Amino acid sequence: MDREVRKKRPPTGGHARTPAQERELRATRVVTNDVQHAVPADQRRCPYCESSKLKPVGQGKESFVWDYVPGYFRRQRHVRETLACTCGQYIVPHQDRTIRSRARATATACAPTS
């Protein structure tokens, strides 16, 4: 009898969300700072055809850095520009060694709080 009553009850709060919907909802609540990394001016010339007309390849490569600020997490989204020459022989990605291509937490997230 209990099982039959539970089956007929409507879910609380309207429709139940799937785990994917819950993750998407949480991701929209996170404070995100966007940081754009452009290719330096001295690398914006093709060594093969000497052209400076380089075009962007895609949207750029993304990487994320998570910081813990007491009470919430903050996400920094780094977008590294990639350019290609119209001659097809030269592709130059942004070369920044301080950004890692995998998600990581900074030291502030691991620091003990008093």
Explain what this protein looks like in three dimensions.
This protein is α/β, with parallel strands linked by helices and 114 residues long. It has one domain (31-110). Helices cover 19% and strands 32% of the residues. It is built from 3 helices and 7 strands; from the N terminus they run H-H-E-E-E-E-E-E-E-H. It has helices at residues 2-8, 19-29, 107-110, and strands at 31-37, 54-56, 61-69, 72-80, 82-85, 91-93, 104-105. A hairpin with a 5-residue loop joins strand 5 (82-85) and strand 6. The longest helix has 11 residues, at 19-29. It starts with a helix and ends with a helix. The model has no long low-confidence stretch (mean pLDDT 77).
Q: Which descriptors apply to this entry?
A:
alpha/beta, elongated
Tell me the fraction of residues in β-strands, as a range.
25-35%
| Distance between the ends | 52 Å
On the 0 to 100 scale, the average pLDDT is: 77
Overall tally of structural domains: 1
- Widest β-sheet, arrangement of strands: 1-4-3-7
Please provide the ordered H/E string of secondary-structure elements: HHEEEEEEEH
Label the overall shape.
elongated
Give unreliable regions as ranges: none
Q: Largest sheet, if any?
A: 4 strands, mixed
Contiguous helical run count: 3
Question: What percentage of residues falls in helices of 4 or more residues?
Answer: 10-25%
Radius of gyration: 23 Å
Number of DSSP strand runs: 7
What structural class should be given to the helix and strand makeup?
alpha/beta
